[in-house]
Specification:
The protein has 162 residues and is mainly alpha-helical. The chain has five helices and no strands. It has helices at residues 2-15, 27-51, 60-79, 95-116, 124-148. It is elongated.
C-alpha cells in the first residue's frame, strides 16, 4: 500500500505547479484549468484516504479497492475533458492522447489489482502487473503536468515532434 501512496504523493506535489499552467486566455482555457485543479484535488483526497487505511484491518484490501475505483473514475473523467486549443501553450495539443493513455493504464491497473486478490487468494504476478500499469499511469500524469506548464517532458522514450 505504501508504494501506491508514495507515487500518488509525487503526483500531488507536482500538481501544485498546475496553478501557473498559463490558462489565462480564453474561457475554455480557464474552465479547463479549473477542471484540472479539481482533478488534482481529488487525487489529494484519494491519497489522504489511502493513507488512512490501517493495513492490519480485515477490510484494508476492500478499502484499497474502493480508493482505486475512485482513482480510475477520476482519471477517466480527466481524460474525457476537452483540452483547449486557444490561449494555451502549444504543448496542450498532446494532453488529450496522453490523458486517454493514462486512463487506459489506470483501468488495467485497477483490474489487475482486483484480480490479485480474487477468490480470497493472493496472486503476486497480477499485483506486479497492476503496479506496472499504475506506474505507467503516473508517468503519463507527470507528462501532462509538464505539458500544462508549456514544456515538453524530457524523456528519451517519447517524441513530441518538437
Amino acid at each position: 500500500m505504501r508504494k501506491y501512496t508514495k507515487v500518488l504523493v509525487c503526483i500531488i506535489l507536482a500538481a501544485i505547479l498546475l496553478c501557473g499552467c498559463g490558462a489565462k486566455g480564453s474561457g475554455a482555457a480557464k474552465e479547463y484549468k479549473a477542471s484540472m485543479e479539481k482533478f488534482f484535488e481529488s487525487l489529494d483526497k484519494v491519497n489522504t484516504d489511502i493513507n488512512s487505511i490501517n493495513p492490519e484491518d480485515q477490510d484494508a484490501v476492500s478499502k484499497l479497492f474502493e480508493q482505486f475505483d475512485v482513482l480510475e473514475k477520476e482519471i477517466t473523467a480527466m481524460s474525457q475533458l476537452t483540452v483547449p486549443t486557444e490561449g494555451v501553450p502549444e504543448t496542450f495539443a498532446y494532453i488529450g492522447d496522453i490523458a486517454k493513455s493514462a486512463a487506459d493504464y489506470m483501468t488495467q491497473a485497477n483490474g489487475y489489482l482486483h484480480d490479485s486478490f480474487s477468490d480470497g487468494a493472493y496472486n503476486e504476478h497480477t499485483l506486479e502487473a497492476a503496479l506496472e500499469c499504475y506506474k505507467r499511469t503516473n508517468k503519463r500524469i507527470q507528462y501532462i503536468i509538464t505539458l500544462l506548464h508549456g514544456e515538453y517532458p524530457k524523456d528519451e522514450s517519447i517524441s513530441f515532434g518538437n
